[in-house]
Amino acid sequence: MDEVQLSDGISYNYNCRPIPLVALKALIAKKPELASECGATADDVDKGRATGLMFVSERDSGLETLHVALRFNGEVKVDSVCFGTSLGHNADPSVIYVSTKKVVEMRRTPWTVVYRTNLRTGKTKQLTPDGQYDLSPAVSPSGTRVAVATFRSGEWKGEIEHLKTDIVLMNVDRHPDGGGLDRGKPIIEDGGWPSWGSDNVIFFHRGIDEREPTSGKISRTTWGVFRYDLTTKTTERVTPEEFDAMTPAAISETKVAVATIRQRTYYMSEKREERQYRHIEVFDLTMPDKPSVRITHNVFPKADYYNPFVLDGGSHIGYNRVRTDKMNHEVQRNTIPYKV
């Protein structure tokens, strides 16, 4: 099984999303130089010969900025844009993203806010209410709602790995009658990294803190991926308790790609076993008796893979990983899809 590199291999590239056809055509219309440099046209997009990817890159003086990669005839052209990561699917294409551009209001508080930018007009609206702070926006398949991980009470108490967030829903746009975004109370407590399996199903990850019996201090945190049904308001665990799983990317209502660490190590060492590396696996709830599908173990077993995302309706899984062939000179994370 071969993997294909989708980014240009410059700097750190991660948090990728495929660009829907309508949105890609809108981008090409707004930035024709992006298509002209690689010879792609709107017709190439319509017929699937040209595809697009949005990702975060640190190539601009170490700042985390959004870039677009247009792939055509095996060539990749990358250009910067002023937008974010999660793509809307409505008639007027937009990008929904998180940014730290808002000024920090006081010490030890978050400053990550979700925005929506219209790709046609370039207009930007803030979706996160004032006084609240969000991460990991995910747009529903219908394009009408966005799920976010929001900091509890708008506070950050210094957590590094296990951020204390809940998942809330809000409308992508305001009602025609001028109403608000209908941001309600959290639907999922203690959850993060939402990913829609359908308009009624959300996958998410959760950290479970284990405490020392005498002191009450957190001794370690384990991670699992869960599924929440908005219709029945029920939550079920998707991944086993025996190993860590995080950053879900929903393929369908019952199938999800996740990053796993099957044997956690808490100490830095010169050599790790294969089970101690972070790999991508696919879990299918309709086949509970069958093992998960291991995606990356046969690519480079001793490499770490991060943040899976879904391509081509689930026939391909993307991820970012360290380029091991460049580790002697420069460590880079590149976006590489893998066929399931």
From TrEMBL:
Superkingdom assignment: Eukaryota
InterPro entries: 6-blade_b-propeller_TolB-like
Name of the protein described by the UniProt record: Uncharacterized protein
Gene behind the chain: gb15930
